[in-house]
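Query protein
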Amino acid sequence: MLEVTDIHTGYGQVKVLFGVSLSVKAGEIHCLMGRNGAGKTTLLKAIMGQLPLNQGEVTLDGERLSGLPAHLVPKRGIGYIPQGRRLFPELTVSENIEMGLMARGEGANTRDWVLELFPRLKERLDQVATTLSGGEQQMLATARALCLRPKVLLLDEPTEGLQPSMIEQIRQVVVKMKAQGYAIILVEQRIDAVLSIADRITFIENGQDRETVAPANVAQDGTILTKYLGV
């Protein structure tokens, strides 16, 4: 479904990614792990067209996305939940959801669907986003991305700073999206949150994809984590 092939990019003269390749299929959770600064968030931004590629390409169902203006990438069916959520803080929950619906012209049926996934948001439709708890803000960011009815979801550290009950709610939604056929790329540092749901794990180091393994391999061989995540 989504294919990333030999991409090189960075920020101005600072190169961050050096030939990263990976893929994710429908109904699959592909997790990215690595130390801070390894290039995980940069990779997601490159997929979304927020950074120009110096080399390589990104395709979705065979259609080339690399080179498209960033605002057109979501319209092709990629939902992005960035680290830090990036909500419209002065808008209400309802207005943030409306912004998501506008991106691909979705309507009331999609709105009802995302609110069924996140009933807590339904209770807070008139509440300003910045007054929500951290977990509720993560729910809203996820709901807004799902308003696209995307084929692919990119999630960047969705459980960061959340209490265990909220982490479990986010996890349940991710698992449900997988069951419904969504392709999911998940950046996550919490290995306990990854092993039970991921299909594959790719370790990113110094801007390169070093190794892709099954979660069972990681559970059985702790040296892999030490190699790529240890200090």
In short: The chain has a mean pLDDT of 91. Strands lie at 2-11, 14-24, 29-33, 55-60, 63-64, 78-81, 152-156, 183-187, 200-205, 208-213. Residues 85-149 form one domain. The chain has two domains: 1-77+152-158+174-231, 85-149.
